[in-house]
Every structure is written in C-alpha cells, then in structure tokens.
Amino acid sequence: LAKQNGRNSYRFFTSEIQSRSARILSLENALRYAQVRGELSLHYQPQVSLCDGKIVGVEALLRWHHPEFGMISPCEFIPIAEESGQILLIGEWVMRTAAKAMKEWLDIGFPAMSVAVNLSAVQFHHAHLSKLVSSIIDEVNLPACYFEIELTESVTAQNPVHAIATMNELNAKGIRLSIDDFGTGYSSLSYLKRFKVYKLKIDQSFIRDISIDPEDREIVKTIIALGKSLGLKTIAEGVETKEQLDFLKENGCDEAQGYYFSKPLNVTDLEALLKHPEIILRKNSNNPQ
Ligand code: C2E
Ligand code: MG
Ligand code: MG
Ligand code: MG
Questions:
Q1: Which pTM value belongs to this model?
Q2: What is the 181 CA–ligand 4 centroid distance (Å)?
C-alpha cells in the first residue's frame, strides 16, 4: 500500500510540475504579444507627504489583463519576463508610458509630483540604461526631477561596481533613486554611503504588524533614524490603517503609500483623485471627519 501511495504522490507531483511549467510557457508566449495587443497598462498609487498630506508622487505599477487568463499578477509575470529577457522591451514601455503620463499631468496643471517606476536587475545591469532613461525623458520632454527609479537591495548587491557607476550616471542627469522593500534584502550599510540614494522605501512587512509587534516598531524607527542621519527621505509602504499612519507620523517618517490613502488607480481614477486632493488631505489630518 505504501508503495502504491508513493507512486501516486510521485505521479501527482510530476503532473503538478508539468502543469506549472505549461502555464509558465504559455504565459511567456502570451507575453510576447501583450504589449502590441494593448493588454498591458499602468496603475498609479499616490505617495503622500506626512507633513502636509499632499500627494508628492505616484508609483507606476504594471498590470496585465489577458483575454483568456484574466488579470495576472506582476509577482507572477515579471519573473517570467526577466527569465526570458522580455523585461527589457516591457520595461522600456513602462518607463515611456509613465514619463508621458507625468508630463501630461504637469501640463494639465496638477501640482508638481514625481512618477516612480520599478526596475528589474536585468534592466538595471543592461548596458546603456542611463542613456535609455535620459533619451526617454528627453523625448517626452519631462524634467528629470519628476522621474524616479525604484530598485531593490538585491539589484545593487549583484554587481556593486557596475551599480555604483550606473547610479552615478543617473544622478548626474538628475534622476532620483529609491531603494524598494528596504530592510528585506542584503544591503550592507556601507553601500548606502557609496550609493547615491534619495529615498528608502520601508518594506510593507515591517508596517503590517506595527501596532502589535514591538520588534517591527523598533525596526521602523531605526530605518527612519538611519534615513535622517544619512539625509535620505523615508517612505512607508503598505500603510492600511490610521494606527500605522499615526505611528509613522510620531516617528518622523516623511511619506506614506498604501491602501489607507489609495489603492493603485487607473489613469481615469487617478485624475479624478488629483482633482479632489481634499480626500487625501482629510485622511492625513489628525481629526478625519
Ligand atoms: P513593489 O514595487 O514593492 O510594489 C508594492 C506592491 O504592494 C504593489 O503590488 C502594490 O499594489 C501593493 N500595495 C500597495 N499598497 C498596499 C497596501 O496597503 N497593502 C498591501 N497588502 N499591498 C499594497 P503589485 O502591484 O502587485 O506589484 C508587485 C510587485 O511587482 C512590485 O512590488 C514590483 O516589485 C513588481 N512590479 C510591478 N510593476 C513593475 C514594473 O513595471 N517593472 C518591474 N520590474 N517590476 C514591477
Ligand atoms: Mg516599488
Ligand atoms: Mg516595495
Ligand atoms: Mg516588492
């Protein structure tokens, strides 16, 4: 019986692997046509200043809606695009689309804010990244100070010498860099000194239990203090409650981003929100009505 069971679970195991790799293959194939078929879009999540409740930026987050598979999470398709090299073309589309959108919002007359795009290691370590970024913002006619790049710690850990060179080039062009998911990666603190970083994005895993977990509270306080002493801005990711927001304000965090203020929004919904900034201002105030 044991033998039979063993064989059954073996069969189950292989068929599971087979169907999983079949999905990866079909997603990889479908991804080839996703951009030309108009299946990709960007959603934008507001980043809010905690001193005055103003929207100071938005993060561009990629969305893929496939006619058959439905909505596919970037957590699933970004690794596939990285593996297959498709991330280079997709990433270029993301940067151009985000830069164009921000240029339009500034032209319309919305208050100055920046747009942040996420970059994969494959993109960041590709030769001529800084040339590509500056050609895109030049083409779109967006001043560099409105364009930000988000990198995770693993990106900078992979090839520090190259990373420093690329960061210096981007900096020279006036483009700001944020470290995404800060605190979860491998970065040694001495890196922060050598990298020209503008902002630390405190990972949402530290924010989640901030009102009940004393260790998370200490970690978040330490990151904010570190940011202050190095002259870096700090932004908390994944802020969902008023309690989390109050803690961050009390401890001097500069900005916050999360469902408490707004989910990532499509262009229409973001523009509607930008026309009514009082919605966000009210949420940031100490006595929300
Ligand atoms: P990330 O850059 O750390 O983005 C934050 C993720 O947290 C987003 O998930 C966002 O929708 C979600 N989020 C925002 N506020 C809250 C909140 O209050 N609570 C919770 N639970 N979640 C919140 P999303 O959009 O699914 O993106 C996942 C990851 O995919 C991103 O993590 C980023 O690493 C990657 N990604 C997204 N777009 C791109 C892109 O254009 N290029 C690359 N290379 N990666 C991307
Ligand atoms: Mg990000
Ligand atoms: Mg993050
Ligand atoms: Mg992430």
A1: 0.94
A2: 6
